[in-house]
Design a protein that fits this description.
There is one protein chain. By secondary structure, this protein is α/β, with parallel strands linked by helices. It has one domain (9-277): Aldolase class I (TIM Barrel), CATH 3.20.20. Helices cover 28% and strands 18% of the residues. The chain has helices at residues 39-51, 70-76, 95-104, 119-134, 150-162, 183-189, 236-243, 261-264, and strands at 9-13, 56-60, 82-87, 108-113, 139-145, 170-174, 196-198, 210-213, 218-220, 229-230, 275-277. It has a nine-stranded mixed beta sheet, covered by helices on one side. A two-stranded antiparallel ribbon has the order 7-11. Helix 2 (70-76) links the parallel strand 2 and strand 3 (82-87). Helix 1 (39-51) packs parallel to helix 2. The protein is globular and about 45 Å long. 43% of the residues are buried.
């Protein structure tokens, strides 16, 4: 049984708002999506987490750059714990946004490639990662891998390699809900070389060190499972209490033989946006 005492990485989804509105989004984000966080309470929450051993917070959504308070939060937590952010990159076309992001100095920013078959999206993300580096922001790529687009994902990996964005700076994320690739599929995209992915790639289960807090102030062992609990307060104690008896529900797809992907590939029993290097 996985305990909760060692949780050291927490994802905080600041908003459900996102103009990109991808159909597969785990939070069903859309342009008019909601948010219930105030910047000051996010900062206080993260400081309390840090005081109880949490080492890193990652900000997502929705699109975190559509949450106005994100820059103040990043500023206020500088030096408190590791602060990362995941973005679609749409707002990185705005120089004002980029300047504010550079001033807030997050420890890392990952830009997502959701549709590797779209050459323009791949090219734009590569350009944005290079731009962030010139602004002093450590950056990388999250590449979504669907079972139906393995060739496109593999081609995107080759493009990333050519641009100097190697395995240490990219994460291969398996599509969830449907069109889910197997662990072998993702390894194929990586050309059987070492790669980073979610710890649930081979088997669904709780991570001993990661959990996700959604825009509506509910918590789960990962961003995808439907098993969630509301937080009674934004504190480490309330987080641990909510996680104590919380399970996970498998979120992947079904392969051609009608077998759940998580059942075919034994191995890690961890889950979520927490990372594993293979």
């Amino acid at each position: 049984m996985v305990g909760t005492a060692a949780v050291e990485r927490v994802s905080i989804e600041l908003t459900q708002r996102c103009k990109k509105a991808c159909w597969f989004c785990y939070s069903a984000s859309h342009p008019n999506g909601g948010t219930e966080f105030r910047p000051q309470e996010v900062t206080a929450f993260a400081r309390d987490l840090a005081g109880h051993g949490v080492r890193a917070v990652s900000f997502g959504g929705g699109e975190p750059l559509e949450y106005e308070g994100v820059f103040d939060i990043l500023h206020d937590l500088r030096g408190v714990l590791f602060r990362s952010l995941t973005t679609s990159g749409r707002l990185l076309r705005d120089e004002t946004v980029v300047a504010r992001l550079a001033d807030a100095a997050p420890d890392k920013v990952h830009v997502s490639i959701h549709f590797p078959e779209r050459e323009g999206e791949v090219r734009q993300v590569i350009s944005q990662v290079a731009m962030l580096e010139t602004r002093g922001i450590r950056s990388g790529v999250n590449l979504l891998v669907a079972r139906s687009n393995l060739a496109a994902a593999r081609a995107a990996v080759m493009r990333l390699d050519a641009a100097g964005i190697g395995p240490d700076r990219r994460v291969l994320l398996p599509m969830r809900g449907q069109d889910t690739p197997s662990a072998a599929d993702v390894a194929q995209v990586a050309s059987r070389r070492p790669f980073q992915s979610m710890t649930c790639l081979t088997a669904c289960g709780k991570s001993p060190r990661f959990c996700a807090v959604a825009w509506d102030k509910t918590v789960a062992w990962c961003s995808y499972t439907r098993e969630r609990q509301p937080l009674e307060s934004l504190t480490h104690a309330a987080l641990m209490a909510a996680l104590a008896n919380l399970g996970v529900t498998f979120c992947g797809g079904i392969d051609d033989e009608g077998v759940s992907v998580s059942r075919r590939f034994s191995g890690s029993t961890q889950h979520g946006h927490d990372l594993v290097r293979s």
